[in-house]
């Protein structure tokens, strides 16, 4: 390896010397027949013969007289310069090629020696490393086992010492307690103390029994009071109006004359409507009318009725309805809302702030007529007053119970608006409608219907 490195160093030095000395060689020139040539011109291109020698040789070979030689034109300074440059470039290329060949040969030999070294000593190095690693692992395992054995021995010794100390403490405690017990029990004070203790236990037992009996009686009395308070609160809640509703209507009985007529704040027509009210029915029968809107052209424009425990909402006659089943109980307040839109005929019934039923295609494209009449607790039916027929109603469809918070809008309310009105302890009557507003719109009660507070 050292030999190859020395050869490379010599080659580099030779290249440096030639590059440094080369420009000086081109400065020396020779003169031939009046022309100046570089010093090494003849060495580069071979030994050229002069014009006279060429003529003599030609004459000796053939007897033909030689023609008169051509006279070459004189070389200019530029020709000489180009000739010198060509010579310099050729020699430089030759030197570079020679150096490249030397470097390649040396590198290949160096690579061969390295591969031979690896092949010769690689296996022995790997085996030596493996042996050293195994030897180190075995030594570490031995040391760890020794350390663990010493730790176990130390722990066992400590455990034995602690156990012996605890045993001694227990024995001394037992001895001390026996002495105290013998001393206390044999003395007259101890005997009197035992007697008092037994007497106290008997007295405490009797007192405990009396206390338990007293607590049981108090608990039964509290339970009775709680039941009375619960009944009172239920009665109070059922009798009072929902929070926020200062007035209400009482329909005492089912009759053909009991109803309430409401005057709207603004006239219809409209293509959307929302009706909300609180109702507490005394008795639920088949088709009990809560709200009805009638016109001269259609006595059944809008109706919100109870059919048993179900709630029905009809638009433009009974053929267009949506029904929520099993949502009404006798003697309990319930908040009802009926929503309808002419676009796609979307109709829905809301009970206590939650949507209980909905249906599309209910009187789709229909428009509510104006100049109608709103009745609470009854319907006009075919006996509409604008036909100049006496106001006679069907008693079987009359409502009996309490009603409050009746409001009507000419738009579809959002679900959040409906939920706010349905809170029994909230302010449901505070959100008034723009068509019918509870506490603002004029009402006329008939047939014994009373206004309550």
TrEMBL record:
Keywords: Signal. One of its GO terms (molecular function) is complement component C1q complex binding. Residues 1-20 form the signal peptide. The keyword Coiled coil does not apply. GO terms for biological process: innate immune response. It comes from the Eukaryota. Residues 47-68 are annotated as: Disordered. GO terms for cellular component: extracellular space. Residues 245-453 form the Pentraxin (PTX) domain. Pfam families: Pentaxin, PTX3_N. PANTHER family: PENTRAXIN-RELATED PROTEIN PTX3. This is PTX3 Pentaxin-related protein.
């Amino acid at each position: 390896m050292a030999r190859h490195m020395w050869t490379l160093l010599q080659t580099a030095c030779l290249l440096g010397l030639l590059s440094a000395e080369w420009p000086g060689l081109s400065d020396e020139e020779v003169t031939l027949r009046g022309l100046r040539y570089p010093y090494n011109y003849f060495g580069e291109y071979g030994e050229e013969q002069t014009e006279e020698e060429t003529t003599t040789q030609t004459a000796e070979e053939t007897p033909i007289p030689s023609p008169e030689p051509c006279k070459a034109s004189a070389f200019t300074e530029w020709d000489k310069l180009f000739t010198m440059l060509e010579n310099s470039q050729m020699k430089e290329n030759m030197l570079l090629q020679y150096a490249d060949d030397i470097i390649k040969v040396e590198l290949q030999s160096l690579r061969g020696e390295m591969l031979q070294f690896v092949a010769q000593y690689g296996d022995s190095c790997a085996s030596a490393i493996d042996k050293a690693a195994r030897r180190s692992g075995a030594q570490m395992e031995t040391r760890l086992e020794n350390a663990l054995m010493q730790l176990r021995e130390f722990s066992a010794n400590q455990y034995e010492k602690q156990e012996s100390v605890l045993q001694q403490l227990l024995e001394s405690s037992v001895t001390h307690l026996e002495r105290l017990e013998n001393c206390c029990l044999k003395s007259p004070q101890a005997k009197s103390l035992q007697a008092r203790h037994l007497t106290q236990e008997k007295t405490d037992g009797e007192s405990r029994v009396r206390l338990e009996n007293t607590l049981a009686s108090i608990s039964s009395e509290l339970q009775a009071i709680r039941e009375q308070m619960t009944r009172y609160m239920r009665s109070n809640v059922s009798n009072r109006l929902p929070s926020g509703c200062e007035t209400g209507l009482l329909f005492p009985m089912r009759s053909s004359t009991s109803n309430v007529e409401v005057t709207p704040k603004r006239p219809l027509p409209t293509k959307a409507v929302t009706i909300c009210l609180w109702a507490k029915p005394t008795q639920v029968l088949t088709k009990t009318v809560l709200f009805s809107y009638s016109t001269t052209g259609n006595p059944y424009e809008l109706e919100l009725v109870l059919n048993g425990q179900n709630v029905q909402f009809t638009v433009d006659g009974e053929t267009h309805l949506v029904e929520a089943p099993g949502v009404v109980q006798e003697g309990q307040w319930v908040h009802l809302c009926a929503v309808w839109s002419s676009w796609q005929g979307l109709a829905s019934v809301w009970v206590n702030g939650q949507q209980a039923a909905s249906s599309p295609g209910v009187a789709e494209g229909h428009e509510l007529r104006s100049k109608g009449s709103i009745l609470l607790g009854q319907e006009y039916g075919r006996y509409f007053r604008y036909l100049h027929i006496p106001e006679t109603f069907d008693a079987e469809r009359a409502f009996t119970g309490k009603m409050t918070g009746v409001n009507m809008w000419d738009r579809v309310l959002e679900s959040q608006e409906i939920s706010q009105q349905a809170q029994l302890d909230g302010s449901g009557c505070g959100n008034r409608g723009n068509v019918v507003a509870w506490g603002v719109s004029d009402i006329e009660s008939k047939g014994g219907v009373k206004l309550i507070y």
